[in-house]
Design goal:
149 residues, 38% strand, 5-stranded antiparallel beta sheet, mainly beta, elongated
Amino acid sequence: MPTNDDALIPVVRGVYRLRSRNLTIGVYTELGIFIGIREKFDHRYLDAEVWNRPPEVLGTAVPLERLGTLPAEIAASEDLGTACRVCGEPADYVRWGDLPSNGFPGRWCHVDAQGVPIADAHEPNVWSVTNEALFEFLDALDPAAPSSR
């Protein structure tokens, strides 16, 4: 794996052309990862790779060129949390203090804006909310992307 000897030191929300296993372009996050578009089996989705900065961290992504900055209105995350497919309201996995008799440490619940479970709501049909804005932003920067052809 290449080192950072000739590479850039990334800044948070900076967008970079990368040398990595699965990403060509990515946005750097405060978690020390790059999020970009990965293609696998004809499916394209947001994925993350760790910034390679030996000897501290042996990651899989090295920034080669800064392309710009992610606009403030776009979240620098792979997804936007979880929500109920039925009503669209936020949902989260809420853990119980003691392991219940069914063997699960918690259950999926609707939650309010502070993340507090809502007791009277129907049981959610949960899904991960895709960060479409980030996908579209990164996709437009990659001239080799299938949707850009």
